Amino acid sequence: MKSSHAGSVSTDYDFVGSAAARLQAFLEQDCLAEDKSCVAEKVQVITLVSVLFLTIVGVLIIFRTLREEKEERITPLCPQLIVKSVDITLGMQLDEDSFDVTELSGKKFCKVILDWPTTAVGIVGTVRLQSVHGVPLVTVVVRSGYAGQNMAICRGSGREMFGFIEATRDKFVVQHRTNTELLTLSEDPETNEMSVYNPVGARVCTANMKNGEMHANIIQHVDAGLALASIIATRVQRRMTHVAGGGPVINVA
């Protein structure tokens, strides 16, 4: 079956290449002034190629517009944590089950609580983001395994599903429940720096460890709640180890 498929693909490429070569040769040949049929045929071919090109461009523009409209219709996970004015740098300790996320000035930004279920089958941890006043903002349920949509993102205390974090071999992809891609997380194996990219490939957040503390720099207009919850959840999943007789701990070194 593979050889047949490969032969079919090769034949298609040969056909396209042959057709392109014939078209180029046809357009390059000179028509006699009295040969009106040759001139008319050239005009028809040029018109057809132009129409096809414009049609393809139009379809691409429509798809891009529909995708942007779809993304705009998605309500942010944490509207109150969107970076509004300038880029922000946040610091947090990951070696505790409950810690504050603070700005460089010391101002509290939000609070994170890590839970380690002992009875839920397949669930190895839960990441909860709260406002500085204790209002639930985000709940991420982390399941065991390193492939598939094994991290579920919920609004508030977990009653409304927002999306998933899908793990692949070298990155994590954050998707809305409508399968719209929101973020992509990639970690440098040498520096352990986590980079977060938006759907168009622009880096919107970086997170790295400094003196036992994680620092995250998030640019303007980005939902910091979604970025932080995703980063912490992926670190919980990838770096936890089970301790005999106790719950999992995070290796932040």
Automatic annotation (TrEMBL):
What is the phylogenetic placement of the source species in the record?
Eukaryota, Sar, Alveolata, Dinophyceae, Noctilucales
The membrane spanning regions, by residue number, are: 43-63
What organism is the protein native to? Noctiluca scintillans (Sea sparkle)
Keyword list, A-Z: Membrane, Transmembrane, Transmembrane helix
Its recorded name reads Uncharacterized protein
